[in-house]
Amino acid sequence: MTASALDSGIKLVKNVVRYNIGAGSLGELDSLLGALRKNATENRADTRVVFMVDEYFSSNSNIRSRLSVESNDFIEFVSTEKEPYTTAINDLVAKIVGLGITNPVAVVGLGGGITMDTAKAVSNLLTNGGRAEEYQGWDLVKKPGIFKVGIPSISGTGAEATRTCVMTNPANGLKLGMNSDFTVFDHVIMDPELTATVPREQYFYTGMDAYIHCVEALAGSYRNAIGDAYSRETINLCRQVFLEDDMMTAKNRERLMVASYLGGCAIATSYVGLVHPLSAGLSVVLGLHHCVANCIVMRAMQEFYPQAYDEFWSMVDKQGVSIPQGVCANLGEKDFKALYEASTMHQKPLTNALGVDYKSILTLEKVTSLFKKM
Ligand code: ZN
After folding, report:
1. How many Å lie between the centroid of ligand 1 and the Cα of residue 132?
2. Ligand 1 centroid distance, CA of 312 (Å)
3. For residue 38, how far is its CA from the centre of ligand 1 (angstroms)?
4. Pairing outcome for strands 168-169 and 74-78
5. SS3 helix, strand, coil % of the chain, rounded to 5?
6. Distance, CA 76 to ligand 1 centroid (Å)?
7. C-alpha span between 222 and 52 (Å, rounded)
8. Cα of 43 from ligand 1 centre, angstroms
9. CA of 333 relative to ligand 1 center, distance in Å
10. Ligand 1 centre from 291 Cα, in Å?
11. Which residues does 143 contact at the CB level (< 8 Å), separation at least 6?
């Protein structure tokens, strides 16, 4: 039997409603918010906007004017030190509601995956009520959130395109997003000028998230024609970017922004494979960030993804970036057991990569030997 979109459990796919793309497109935000505020004024509704902005921009003196922030608006500079916790999202929503902002005209997220995911979660909670952890899962969000605008300032995670917002509940360690049609952005602005100042290594690690998503999807068994098409073009664009001398030219920053978006669309119709579960293990047990953790996992992927392994390391050489090594060097038996548990719990992607009997391949001994290579 051929696998189809139905076999992956994904029957219906919602994409971003509208987007702007191209250098300078951030300038479109002013008229977009202006129209929403005007509409709210006419309906005697709240005209305020809630902004979630990556803390990286907090010292940028003209960020408020570039985003058309008005004096009554709410702006939060989101810390990217840790990936989103449900508790932090609940606190943020309480702070916004505490200021009397229950029905703003829009929630705007400017930043990387952490900031955009935070904006999506806040938007859904403002209209649905309750706490973030109540919506971790599939289709638990009951009504549309506040109008969501996503503006990526780094490319690769695909958070601008997906129907989820990844978050961890610290009470039970569950890392799972609000998978819902209502989590998709209503409007995305992709302006490659925003990625011009990203540090090179960060740019590489994050960009590789798009490449790795699609390598895993194309090597998996839950396949469908649309997901494959998105994945192939994402990989194609990543090759153009990372095998050229300078991955950060204006042209390459635009290509990578498109690759990130298409990679997000790809993953919305398919599953990742072995890299992401092992990477999640590194994040949960050692606190490593998602994108750098993926790159570290690639150290152990030669036997599973031989072609991508060679290509990945040639891209690393070409761009002269360094990938951390020896992150599990000083760990003991207990730590490896924790890494094993945190990795092998990801049933769907591991079945996608290795089949239903994946645990017969990924024994504790095998998983330990993989982590020792990192
Ligand atoms: Zn990823």
Report:
1. 21
2. 15
3. 38
4. unpaired
5. 50, 10, 40
6. 25
7. 35
8. 41
9. 27
10. 7
11. 127, 128, 182
- Here the tokens at position 206 are 């994050």
Distance 114 CA to ligand 1 centre (A): 12
Give distance in angstroms: CA of 146 to centre of ligand 1: 26
What is each CA distance from 191 to 15, 51, 84, 182, in whole angstroms? 19, 17, 24, 24
pLDDT digits (tens, 9 = 90+) for 275-327: 999 999 999 899 999 999 999 999 999 999 999 999 999 999 999 999 999 99
Distance (Å) from CA 209 to ligand 1 centroid = 5
Per the confidence metrics, is the pTM higher than 0.85? yes
Residue 342 Cα to ligand 1 midpoint, Å, equals 16
46-105 pLDDT, tens per residue? 999 999 999 999 999 899 999 999 999 999 999 998 889 999 999 999 999 999 999 999
Q: Return the SS3 of 251.
A: helix
β-pair type (168-169, 178-179): unpaired
214 alpha carbon – ligand 1 mean position (Å) = 10
Q: Give dist(CA 142, CA 84) in Å, integer.
A: 22
6 Cα–ligand 1 center, Å:
23
- SS3 at position 357: coil
Distance CA(144)–CA(163), nearest Å, equals 12
> How many C-beta neighbours within 10 Å does residue 322 have?
9
Q: By C-alpha distance, which of 370, 168, 177, 371 is closest to 289?
A: 168
Length of the chain: 374
